[in-house]
Amino acid sequence: MTDAAQSSDVLVAYDGTPLKQQLAKTTRRMKFRALLLTMPLVLFIIVSFVLPIGDMLFRSLHNPTGSNVAPNFAEAIQKWDGEDYPSDDIIKIFVEDLATARKNREVGKTVGNLATRVNYEIPGSRSLFTKTARRAGKITEGPYLDALIKIDKKWENKNVWVTLKRVTRDYTLSFYLAATDRKYDENESIVRADELYRIYLPILWKTIWLSALITFLCFIIAYPVAYLLSTLPLRTSNLLMILVLLPFWTSLLVRTSAWIAMLQKEGILNNVFVYLGFIGDEHRIQMIYNATGTVISMVHILLPFMILPLYSVMKTIPPSYMRAAKSMGASNFLAFRRVYFPQTIPGIAAGVLLVFILAIGYYITPALVGGNDGLLISNLIANHIQRTLNWSLGAALGTILLVVVLVLYWIYNKLVGVDNLKFG
Fold it and tell me: I need a labelling partner for 164 at 20 to 30 A (CA). Which of 54, 154, 218, 304 fits?
């Protein structure tokens, strides 16, 4: 066969290029256009989620406070084997770095920053560093350890030097240990924290328990409401749906403040109970600034997020299915259990997932109505970020909460299946 005959068998486009090559070029152009269309969403996800989460993970491990304040000592102390005390040369470098830090007072590099960092590991040690830094400039000759002991006898405690070696590393797991109520001991072994400081794990379990309880109560209340909305005439159901959506049109702070007025001892609900004779005036119920107030107010706030997925699924179930089941001899309960309820499971799964994830990370409502008993782990995270400025511990707690949610989501996916969710 000649070359002319072979070329005549190749399909070409209008411009003479091979059709296969032209199709590949067109496909690449379409993929590029699709990428440009999705680029704003990709950038939004990166800026709003990926970068903040990445920064949180980084801060939970990275804390250069020690090396910023005492850079020379941070390098020298790592050569110490941990036996006995550091050499006099290392302690001399420490004294010089303290004096320099007190003299320069650069932002983020003051002795107070180092004192705060060590105080996370050894509570009550902050004054040791601030007092020593004031006199460090007067120490001109060794032995330097004896000079420090004259300033404060706490320098005899070997654990202080072991802690200094640890906190002058830029990367550490100390904050994850603190977030799980553990710490390093003098031998660098991981042990449980003192009972007084075991607060984070109990609050984490309480957060999971209260979130599950709130989700369950939302389901119990939302299911009959969604069923009623799906079976009523359209005009009536639309009117009731406005009442369901009404909380979305009201400020969250206003709704939470309203619950404070209703649930307090001298509030509306207690006054009604006393008026009806359910309780005596001297036995008013404490329903605010505790876990009860948190549960009640959060159920009210999150209830629409359970009703809407249920309603969207129930609305698509033909009423003829129930009538057919009854016509074949099934009772109302059996028809509901075998025919109607299984078809609503996708809506239940969607509502449960939505409400639980929102509840486990809620912050404003527990902060206002929870008191000490109704606080969630999110409130502790916010406290470390805003007040104590222990960003690394706050980041570690946030990372642990993220991991817990992902694990629960994985279990949920195995039991229910994300493919079965229906939000509308």
Answer: 54
